[in-house]
Amino acid sequence: MSLGNWVLEPGEALTRFCVSASREERFAEFFTGEAMDMTMDYHFQNGTGPSEETFCRQIFRQQMAERSVDPAQALPRSQVTFVGESDTVSFSSFNRLPFHVQRWLEVELHAESAGLYPFQLSTCGGVRIWRDGAAVASFTPFTRNTQQSCDVLLPLAAGKNTLLIHLEELFERDTHFVLRLIYRGDVSLGVSLPNVEAKTLDALTHFASGMRPELTAWNNQARIRLAAAAPAHTVHLEGEIHGMGNDNFTPRQVDFGAVSPASEALTLEIPRDIGPAHYQIALRMRCEDVCITRAIGVNVMQPLGAAEPSGKLQERKLQALRHTARHGMDRTSRLLAMLHCGEVTDAATPLLLDTLQRISAREDCSDFSLVPLLWIWRDHEGEHFPPALWRRVRSTILGYRYWLDEPGNDVMWFWSENHTLCFHAAQYLAGQMFPNDLFLASGRSGEQQREIAARRLAQWFDAVEQHGFVEWNSAPYYPVDYIGLFALYELAADAWISERAKALIDRLMLLSSLHYQAGIAAGTMGRVYEKELLAGVLTELSAYGNVAWGGGWYNRKCASLPLFCASDYQPPVDTHRYATLQQGTLSASYQAGGGNIVVWKAPGVSLSSCVDHHTGKRGHQQHLVDVQFASHYDAKLWVNHPGDDEPGGEKRPSYWSGNGVLPRVMQVDNRAMQIYCLPEGEAFPWTHLYLPGEAFDRVISTAHSCVVKAGEAFAAICCSAPLTAVTQGMTAGNEYRAQGHRVAWYIEVGHGDASDFDAFCQRMSTLSVRLDDSDTAVAATAEGELMRLDLQGRCQVEGVERAFPADAGCHPIVIYRGDAQ
Questions:
Q1: Backbone angles phi, psi at 770, to 5 degrees
Q2: Which of 138, 201, 635, 776 could form an SS bridge with 629, CB 3.0 to 4.6 Å?
Q3: Cβ pair 717, 691 in contact under 8 A
Q4: How many whole angstroms separate alpha carbon 55 and alpha carbon 442?
Q5: Which domain of life does the protein's organism represent (predicted)?
Q6: Residue 306 domain-assigned?
Q7: In whole angstroms, what is the distance from residue 400 CA to residue 359 CA?
Q8: What span, in angstroms and rounded, lies between the C-alpha atoms of 690 and 490?
Q9: Nearest Cα to 160, choosing from 122, 197, 132?
Q10: CA distance 467 to 462
């Protein structure tokens, strides 16, 4: 087609638009809100929430769905969308308060003849479309994080047609805000963008698509390898750096300068006062009058010299408190660390003011701040700050909304096991500390709040003690569980609450010790994000391991670590032996949150899996199989089925975290097998292996397998489908893909000296995995069959029937072998 600059073929998605900046306005800020149904099912399940929409979304739909939008009020469209490999334009983000967010988009479609042209329109939000000023489509479902679709017929005239699109949504916490337009016609259409030079945009898009960001940024330098040369005209880079997590970080604008057309790599200088943590850079690339933005995740790393060695727990606690007081993220628990160890700096007052603002506004995750604030009140009320500020602390505590049955108009999340615990702990402790005061949202006295919260805590303890944590072994969420547990252990007046809290702390410490590997909180996890999987050294749970058992690092994460350090708690004696395994091997089995967990660990490597977990169902953030080596924090690998097409994306499951479709998994000792059966029509008909080649001493790859060595340990990974190494894009050098709807993967790990590795390689050189017509997977070598698994979970290892131990419960069964200590 000669019309337009680009061609839109039948079946393709329209992804090039000029787009405005976002207009963001606080929604229904002065609405009192209402109480919600307080019924709570304490059998938690990841990814589930309330059965009813929030009050603010109900009001939003009433006000916005049928309203008239004036296209004359459209914001200037000064940038161009960039979607990478996706077919969806996304403006997804996170907001702790209800915000009305709007965007305007524009594109020109060219038709050879007038007519009605069919499109499938999909959105999370609401969409309105005008053609040359006339309204032609409106679709406003406003269903939070649930993409809805409809078919639309766009009336196009012969020649150029200008489409103006209004996109809006209510932001509540993590919010998917997307637009997808798939052309369903049978003739090609032309595409152009107003006032955009096509060759410049093509060159800039090609340049952005060829960026391969390195995950880790050392010395505050983020490196990006370039697979495509920069356009001949000057490309200028700017960025906005955002924090990733619940830490208080004010976004920073940074000018990165110009790019040389001959460059093979970029180095983005991150300001030195931005400390080690997980960040996202919204990288704006401008060439002549064309500007596009690509989001890049980066982990700003800290020097990995081991923490100051100490054989005494109390000394490690004090070291961690001082490290947090000086370098911690701006969270309420950092303020507790300052006060507890006597290192109160000029940052203390802003920290307290920020805490009070978050809690008073009832921001999402403010429950995580309120619990340590109550600890601060108990231990330090009247110290360091003026009386007027302490009076504000008191009024903030009394004015909070502690549960669903109290009126409110906010987007606080009450329904996950970590949030539920923190809300109940906060309500209990606040009521205990202010027994005779009036709590404004509920209209109850403190004593009434304490009694109600105690009953709710009993229900929470009953469920978690019986069924285990749904967010098992979670690097991001065990530290949040610890917020409530340590506060109840240390502060609760009722002995039964303190004792039950301690018992669960003991359990979490025990389970974490089984997965702790050379300073890293590794292993299968019930809920995790890519940032924790890809940089375990920066997780707070890894720092917990260093305080509890040594051998690792402190970092800036401090949701709850200062609570552990300020308490008199001591981990069970056995946990030190498990965490610091020096010789021999151990294996363990336990139940958690609907999954059966298996761990095998040697001094140099650990393998863990969750078996029999919702096979064939849609996943969320469950990380089912994990291998972590001791030689390097980044020497790890896993297999999953992606739930998103872009690394670092906002979906749950994402590209590397979770599974779009959950596999059948079985692990016996140092061997694990996965069977994936993907439905026909699955958006991602492939599975993939994360294997960062540069982190290993050796990588030996064949058509169906990889053998890796790291330090004194090694592993083999074999697939029933051919493996293709990814050599382009963000995951080049770290990813192998296996195409196919039905596929099996086998993993075996081992440890030993050079001769042991040679023998392992010899045995694995004949390794093959096949999946027969009954979807039974078989892994075998020339020496015989190693492992067999079918979709029903029946498993054989070297011909012997094996199953998850029937007597394994929430407390693990641990077995030592060989010369284990």
A1: -130, 155
A2: 635
A3: yes
A4: 17
A5: Bacteria
A6: no
A7: 7
A8: 41
A9: 132
A10: 9
684/696 Cα distance (integer angstroms) = 28
- CA 343 to mean position of chain CA atoms: 33
- Cα separation, 461 vs 98, in Å, equals 31
Residue 653: asked if its preceding bond is cis (omega within 30°), the reply is: yes
Is 806 buried (19+), middle (13-18) or exposed (0-12) by CB count in 10 A? exposed
Q: Where does 468-552 have alpha helices with state H? A: 478-491, 495-515, 530-534, 540-549
| Partners of 294 in the β-ladder | 283
| Angle subtended by helix axes 478-491 and 540-549, to nearest 10 | 50
Neighbour tally for 51: CB within 10 Å: 10
d(CA 558, CA 479): 8
Same-domain pairing of 561 and 655: no
- How many Å apart are CA 378 and CA 380, to the nearest integer? 6
CB neighbours (10 Å) of residue 492?
A: 21
Paired residues of 534 in beta bridges: none
Residue 1's pLDDT is 47
Q: Given 502, 532, 565, which residue is the final one in a domain?
A: 565
- Return d(Cα 512, Cα 541) in angstroms, integer: 8
CB–CB of 314/331 below 8 Å?
Answer: no
Token match 């053609």: residue? 131
What burial letters (b/e) apply to 233-272, b meaning 16+ CB within 10 Å? eebebbbebbbbbbbbbeebebebeebeeeeeebebebee
Which amino acid, 358? R
The sign of the CA dihedral 791, 797, 799, 801 is negative
Q: Could you tell me if residue 415 is inside a domain?
A: yes
Check: CB of residue 56 under 8 Å from CB of residue 411.
Answer: yes
Rounded CA-CA distance 789/677 in Å is 13
DSSP 8-class letter at 602: E
The 10s digit of each residue's pLDDT in 524-555 is 999 999 999 998 999 999 999 999 999 888 99
pTM equals 0.94
What three-state secondary structure class fits 810?
coil
Task: Return the pLDDT at 305.
Answer: 62
Weakly modelled stretches of the chain, pLDDT under 70: 1-2, 37-38, 304-309, 819-821
Residue for token pair 């890293």: 520
In Å, how far are 466, 541, 761, 811 from 814, measured between CA atoms?
Answer: 19, 22, 29, 9
Token pair 């140092």 in the structure block, residue: 670
CA 554 to chain centre: 21
DSSP string covering 311-349? S-HHHHHHHHHHHHHHH--SSHHHHHHHHHHT---TTHH
Are 277 and 294 part of one and the same domain? Answer: yes
Point out which residues pair with 124 in neighbouring strands.
178
**CB-based contact 458:494 (threshold 8 Å):** no
Conformational region of residue 470, where left means phi above 0, alpha means psi within -120 to 50, and beta covers everything else: alpha
Burial class (CB in 10 A: 0-12, 13-18, 19+), 211: buried
Within this chain, do residues 294 and 358 fall inside the same structural domain, yes or no? Answer: no
Q: Would 579 be classed as within a structural domain?
A: no
Q: Is 45 helix (H, G, I), strand (E, B) or coil?
A: coil
Find the DSSP H helices in 212-312. none
Burial call 89-110: b when 16+ CB within 10 Å, e when fewer = bbbbbbbbbbbbbbbbbbbbbb
Structural domain harbouring 225: 200-300
Parallel, antiparallel or unpaired: strands 216-217 and 290-300: parallel
Residue 105 sits in a domain of what CATH number? Answer: 2.60.120
Which single residue is written with the structure tokens 């996202």? 280
Distance between CA atoms of residues 811 and 808, nearest Å: 7
Burial 191-207 (b: 16+ CB within 10 A, else e): bbbeebbeebbebbbeb
- Give whole-number Cα distances, 528 to 442, 472, 484, in Å: 34, 10, 19
Asked if residue 103 is part of any domain, the answer here is yes
Both tokens assigned to 362: 């009832």
